[in-house]
Design brief:
Mean pLDDT: 80
Strand order of the largest sheet: 1-3-2
CATH class of the largest domain: Mainly Alpha
Distance between the termini: 54 Å
Strand content: 5-15%
Structural class: mainly alpha
Number of strands: 3
Largest sheet: 3 strands, antiparallel
Low-confidence stretches: 202-207
Radius of gyration: 23 Å
């Protein structure tokens, strides 16, 4: 892990990409993300100066303090006091952030299955926009309700194919599949094949209205 941490410290330009991919998993809000990226640009250890940060970011000083305190409580950063020449100075350290990201990278290397952050990224790519925190919670709710990552991806594909970028539409597909007993990609493909045979379709692509096919 130390080697990964050192790489992250030596090449900070890599870090924002991982932050964008995993900040939701780390429990970081969009506003906190802005603060983190700004601090990272200054170095691994930065003097704690909310006033200076607020002026450079164009953000209220007390808002900056609130965000820094939140990151500190989440153990994303640490705020420490160091003495030098009989003078005390507060510093913001990113060591905890590096450790958390290193752990995520190690976990991903050991587990090749999709995690929630991967799914969020795929939805954003297919929707062509950033998904909101509420939308992330809805998708996470599907996972908590027992829908596999594979099935969610298949429902997303169906929605995109039909020109729909709505979570409500995808949710209807998922629950319709559950009602019909479909549990994986194979079940979906078999259902499509049966539908195609029943309609005597010869084309490679066809429209299957999962919501109103009864």
């Amino acid at each position: 892990m130390n080697e990964i941490e050192n790489i992250l410290k030596e090449k900070p330009i890599v870090l924002p990409r991982y932050l964008f991919n995993y900040y939701l998993r780390l429990g970081i809000t969009p506003e906190e993300l802005i603060i983190l990226i700004f601090i990272m640009d200054k170095g691994n250890k930065v003097i704690y100066n909310p006033l200076e940060l607020s002026e450079e970011l164009g953000m209220d000083k007390f808002k900056v303090m609130e965000l820094l305190n939140s990151l500190n409580e989440k153990k994303i950063i640490s705020i420490t006091v160091e003495k030098e020449n009989n003078k005390s100075e507060e510093y913001i350290s990113l060591e905890l952030l590096y450790k958390k990201i290193a752990n995520i990278l190690i976990d991903k290397k050991e587990d090749k299955t999709l995690d929630n952050s991967d799914i969020f990224s795929i939805f954003e790519k297919e929707f062509g926009r950033t998904i909101s925190s509420m939308e992330c919670q809805i998708i996470k709710g599907w996972i908590d309700d027992g829908f596999s990552h594979e099935l969610i991806m298949e429902a997303l594909k169906e929605a995109i194919y039909n020109g729909v970028t709505s979570l409500r539409y995808i949710e209807k597909i998922l629950y319709e599949w559950r009602k019909k007993g479909y549990k994986n990609k194979k079940d979906i493909q078999e259902a499509k094949e049966k539908y195609r045979e029943s309609k005597k379709e010869t084309k490679d692509y066809f429209f299957y209205d999962w919501i109103n096919d009864d």
